[in-house]
Amino acid sequence: MRASKYLARDLVVDLDPNSKRHLKLLRAACASTQELLRAMPGEEGQPLFAFASMILAQIARDWNGAEELAGQLIQDKSGVRENHDLAFLITDDRFHLGLTNYDQLHHEWLAFARGLRNPKGHEQTQLVIDALAR
User: Are 49 and 79 a contacting pair, CB within 8 Å?
Assistant: First the structure.
């Protein structure tokens, strides 16, 4: 589902930073889409929604939620890499961005990654930050 890659990005980009209600709605939409995609075998876009959810959780200063999502992102990324039906999409070994051969949005995902924080020193959050900083 190529469109899911754009939708995940759009949910982050479209955020009105002055509206807590909008942030809450986008987080719910992202989480719902993530669950829907998780139930679809062979859907490679699911890790993008975990990443978008992590970004939105950090914007909301929901550090516990962001930490949980960092673990989910690591797990989802591994699931895509281990799925032999999706092997044709994997372009390289980069943590998150190597999961897709559609690279038009990579610069935006990297910009989002530069905004990630780890105020509690959470191991998996740091792994995500470090992997995307390479």
Answer: no
pLDDT in tens, the chain (134 residues): 455 778 888 899 999 989 999 999 999 999 999 888 878 766 667 788 889 999 999 999 999 999 999 999 888 777 665 555 555 555 555 555 544 555 566 688 888 888 999 999 999 999 999 888 77
What is the spatial distance between Cα 56 and Cα 4, in angstroms, rounded to a whole number? 17
Specify the number of domains making up the chain.
1
Residue 48 belongs to domain spanning: 2-133
What sign has the CA pseudo-torsion 42, 48, 127, 87? positive
Looking at residue 105, its amino acid is L
- DSSP class of residue 92 equals S
The structure's pTM equals 0.80
